[in-house]
Design goal:
With about 350 residues, this protein is of the alpha/beta class. Helix content is about 35%, strand content about 20%. The strands form 2 sheets. Strands 1, 2, 3, 4, 5, 8, 9, 10, 11, 12, 13, 14 and 15 form a 13-stranded mixed β-sheet that branches.
Length: about 350
């Protein structure tokens, strides 16, 4: 397994005050998920400046937003798509000048299909990476038929043997799928309640909520957990360590997809030129290989995806599947806050 640095793990799991870690180029601070400090993902920046940017880490999207809203300063941040409206509403970001991002024209247009991202005022978001959330499972301990359905997470045979992400968006994607909802942009009160009831059942089986994919991988590799609702990278880490893990993306109720990208933070303390150089390195087609190999994610740049199209990891982890898909696209901010509050109650046992 590709273990994250001790500093990165501690900062990703630590609480409220964001602390710069892996200090390097002092003229660019990137606020990011732990794990994205891998140089192969932005090799062009390292080649240009001889160093990584300075990274600060967070454990989930809501934590990142709260830190930035509380005054933490960085130059760019890496939220997932459903968070962008919060950044805009809080006046934390400014539009990108896409004339300075040559690969912008090669971004798959489906990732830009929202007025939250692109409107008359400009381009507020550069979608950069995408992946899936599905069932990771121990091939040694879990029969394939048990993971043919998302109901494995409420199956009493797996009491104390499952793990879910400590991420409201991902757990609600799971709960909606498990209760027959594939579009979270139009959820009724009845559908919300059915999903909440299902999540409360699933909570009874949870050994731990994982805070980052490294933690999830360690839970499974240690034998503590046999079934997890997982991003691609947790599976990559386990297989790199020789663990026999399956990735079931075709449970009968479906699986979820998501994408993340970069926002240009207002009043960043560093160099605006270097912020663009970092984005250009990230979006270069050559970076698709590093992104796939180190984390298992796809790049939003269509030319980049062409360079890795024949890789077996793409076929298994990123290719289309013939089951329902819940896409984690921007949804009603009020609904998202409702889900977040309910998830906190569920984790607390209420």
């Amino acid at each position: 397994m590709r273990h994250l640095s001790t500093t990165a793990i501690l900062l990703a799991l630590a609480a409220p005050v964001a602390t710069p870690a892996l200090a390097a180029d002092p003229e660019l601070t990137v606020f990011d998920w732990a794990g994205f400090e891998e140089p192969s993902i932005f090799q062009g920046y390292v080649d240009q400046y001889g160093d990584n940017p300075t990274f600060a880490f967070y454990g989930d999207d809501d934590e990142a937003f709260q830190k930035l809203a509380s005054g933490f300063k960085a130059d760019v941040a890496h939220p997932c798509s459903q968070m962008v409206s919060k950044y805009r509403d809080a006046n934390l970001i400014e539009p990108w000048d896409t004339s300075r991002i040559p690969e912008f024209e090669n971004i798959d247009k489906r990732f830009l299909d929202s007025e939250t991202f692109v409107d008359d005022e400009g381009v507020w978001y550069i979608p950069a990476d995408w992946g899936v959330t599905a069932i990771a499972y121990s091939k040694e301990n879990v029969p394939e038929e048990d993971v043919s359905t998302l109901q494995v997470f409420v199956n009493p045979d797996y009491a104390g043997r499952t793990s879910l992400p400590d991420s409201s968006d991902d757990v609600w994607a799971l709960a909606y799928l498990a209760t027959g909802v594939t579009d979270w942009t139009d959820v009724t009160d009845e559908q919300f309640q059915a999903a909440a009831d299902w999540l409360r059942q699933a909570h009874q089986n949870v050994a731990a909520y994982w805070a980052d994919p490294s933690e999830q991988a360690q839970l499974m590799a240690s034998g503590t957990v046999d079934v997890a609702w997982s991003w691609n990278d947790g599976v990559v880490y386990l297989r790199d360590d020789g663990y026999d893990v399956g990735f079931q993306r075709e449970a009968e109720e479906g699986s979820s997809t998501w994408f993340c990208g970069f926002v240009n933070l207002k009043d960043g303390p560093g160099s605006e030129d270097k912020a663009y150089d970092f984005i250009n390195a990230w979006m270069d087609p050559s970076s698709a290989r590093g992104l796939l190999d180190t984390i298992g994610y796809g790049q939003t740049n269509l030319k980049g995806m062409e360079t890795i199209a024949d890789d077996p990891a793409v076929a298994e982890g990123l290719s289309p599947v013939d089951v329902p898909i819940l896409a984690q696209v921007p949804n009603d901010p009020a609904q998202r806050e409702k889900q977040l509050a309910e998830f906190e109650k569920i984790k607390a046992g209420f």
